[in-house]
Amino acid sequence: MKKKHSWLVMAAALLVAAVTVSVLVLTRGKSQAYTSEERSLEDFLSMVPAEAFQWDNLSFADYQGIRSPTEITAGFYHLTSYYFNNEKISASMGFSPEDVGQSMAIGTVPFDQAWLKGKFATERVEEALKKQGYLPIMPEQEGLPLWGLEGNFSAGLQIDTEKRDMFFLFGGQTGQRWPVAFDEGVMVSSRDEQALRVSAAGKGPMLSEDPRMQTLLKALAQQPVKQLIVTQAVKVMPLLAEPLHLIAIAQTEERGKTVVLLGLEYADLSAAQTAEKRLNRSLPNAVLKINHRPLTEQLNEHGGKRMALRTVEGQEGKCWLVIPFQFTESGNTNPLQYGAPFRLFAQMMSRLDMDWLME
DSSP secondary structure string, 122-142? Predict the structure, then answer.
């Protein structure tokens, strides 16, 4: 009987251990907490009033399953940069980076906005804000509750180096405290009062309903998007002579392989088709001006190759030309490099090293 009893005890212990491991697996990765619909870029854009975006800059990141800082380049810069500083951000903000499923930065300084989408304990956030000197902004308006330093929009906009807090995401790096609006599912902050009021009110057509955005999603977001950067083409290619409006890069996954989509928004289908013919001739010989290395050589180092170009027409006449690049991890691929195919193109954009698209 004692032997039988010991086996029962051992079996029970193993069962408890198995349940414990299962719980850890389910709770440690936040990706288990969000459905595919909740994680979609379109769902996030459905929270942003179209009026809040002027078609200048947009940077989006999905943090689900992220394992290292090299994987993510886009999104709200201050969160992306400090994503693995959980305890320090929690102390300053009242939430952990793991509570944030996605982030997005839209607009141009000082009219830019930071958007966070996740699951926030509002009481903890309010407590953290009060410690920073925040109070509700009165009178209340419809939509998300507004908070600001000393209860107003302007008090937190002064740069004060003595109040620097690198882990307070909304202005803390310069000693500022930007006003913020939030509930349990979304948070938005901006230095610009009008922009924040519009975003917090959440009225009018949403950005996901904008015909131009719908065409962009059709071109670049047929698969779930991990990262996306959209900006005006002239900011990346100052000497641009073609009728090109926007340039975008998106990271998706197809059949287990990382895909980076480089998109170019042209004035019309004819312009896009002309560019397609030209690029089919020039891309095999494209050279980056910063390091004077062939593009194909850089792609090979990342286990990547260019796929067939395609065009996607929009409702307003504009047309996207999409250049897909597929990356395959292999035994010869540097794992640190493989984790950053999107970063490769983001760096080209930030260094204004995209002239090879115009050759």
Answer: HHHHHHHHHHHTEEE-SS--S
3-class state of residue 144 by DSSP: coil
Residue by residue, DSSP assigns 315-347 as: TTS-EEEEEEEEE---TTS-HHHHT-HHHHHHH
**pLDDT tens-digit map of 32-77:** 355 555 568 999 999 999 999 999 999 999 998 787 777 899 999 9
| Cβ pair 326, 257 in contact under 8 A | yes
- In 3D space, the residue among 128, 114, 126 whose CA is nearest the CA of residue 74 turns out to be 114
- Which tokens hold the place of 279? 């690029």
The C-alpha atoms of residue 193 and residue 85 are separated, in whole angstroms, by 29
Q: For residues 10 and 29, what is the distance between their CA atoms, to the nearest angstrom? A: 29
Using alpha carbons, select from 263, 259, 256, 254 the residue that is nearest to residue 220: 263
Sequence length of the chain is 359
Contact 63, 113 (CB under 8 A): no
Give dist(CA 270, CA 264) in Å, integer.
13
Cis peptide before 110 (omega within 30 of 0): yes
Contact by Cβ (8 Å): 96, 167? no
Contact 199, 146 (CB under 8 A): no
Taking only the tens place, the pLDDT of each residue in 106-128 is 999 888 999 999 999 999 999 99
CA dist 103 and 81 (Å) reads 12
